[in-house]
Write a structure and sequence with these properties.
12 helices, seven-stranded mixed β-sheet, binds nicotinamide-adenine-dinucleotide, 18% strand
Amino acid sequence: MKVAVVKENAPGERRVALAPETVPKLVKAGAEVLVENGAGEEAWFPDSAYAQAGAVIVSPAELYTAADVILTVTRPGPDAVPRLRAGQAVIGMLSTLINPELARDLAAQGVTAVSLDGLPRTLSRAQPMDALSSQANVAGYKAVLIAANAYGRFFPLLMTAAGTARPAKLLVLGAGVAGLQAIGTARRLGAVVSGYDVRPAAAGDVESMGATFIELTSVGPAAGEGGYARALTEEERAAQQAELAGHIARQDVVITTAQVPGRRPPLLVTEDALKAMAPGSVIVDMGASALGGNVIGSVPRETIVTAGGVTVIGADNLPAAVPTAASAAYSRNISAVLLHMTRDGTLAVDLDDEIQAGVVITHEGKVVQQATARLLEPANDGGADVHGTGN
Ligand code: NAD
């Protein structure tokens, strides 16, 4: 089996699907590893490191011709899709719930598509494959560094000959994987940290990281299925926004990470909340998306300073901004998926396997993953309210 690593070509994408350290593991399992020249250079993995680890460096043309399995970070772009051929497999974070047409096209081409974002995350044996978590961890960490960079004061309490600086007050809204990493990172930088989530189980997680959990009296518990949150009703949302505004006003820095599977990110920081913040405050919206984010008016990849002097940073693909660590973690995730699906040195699709039933999106000309197939049914509009998680 020839396993090939492509050079990512989405704008700003610096990650690579496989790090050199993972190459020997695949070689040991019987794979021949091909790496497109320059694939890892943006993540500081030179071609020579791959070659030393046992991979063969190839041109893009050779790669697409020879590969049995192609490893990617994000979905193949419009140039790459036509180059794939029947019988080939592509494994990556394909986000087919946001872009079901990609699944339809790959199925039509006879390509087997495997997407790490379809993984059943609550299975403990799937944890080494959980790229949504590994990348959310990186993103939560980077969000805090971005906030610290934009903030005009210190995060820690500093006592110097020139006076004492009080520590920054930082609130994390949404305490899932990214939020908890943000809390941990902000604590290590010395900020006074609090956290909030609609899932009651998050209270213990927040407190175990040394932060204060904010409990709202106006919104009841909103745990959904599979450890995720459910969407709030209109009334709950309004009550949450109003009560949160009081807490937000007291913060120097707010980091928002709230997501609900299959929905646009919930709006947590309203115009009124923004107006009540002091000049110099900073918000990083990790939920920023084309559909709107957790913060009113936030725009992905843009920094906006409100009339009241609040800096609102719309985050975009934060894992790509920590490319070496994010790639190393992703490399372990994707190789675990590949090895899970490998029998006697070849890719063996088995849709009766619980993990494969989640991650295999297309096979033998059909869209086989149910969630994606449902979006392609004629009655469906393609899932306009669907968002991508951690990608
Ligand atoms: P996510 O990215 O879907 O959402 C981030 C956070 O936003 C969640 O904690 C969610 O509760 C919160 N949120 C949603 N709506 C909100 C609102 N209106 N107000 C405030 N907060 C809101 O979540 P995630 O980080 O992918 O993780 C979600 C859950 O899955 C967590 O419980 C996590 O521990 C769990 N998880 C479990 C495993 C496992 O069992 N192996 C692996 C990964 C994640």
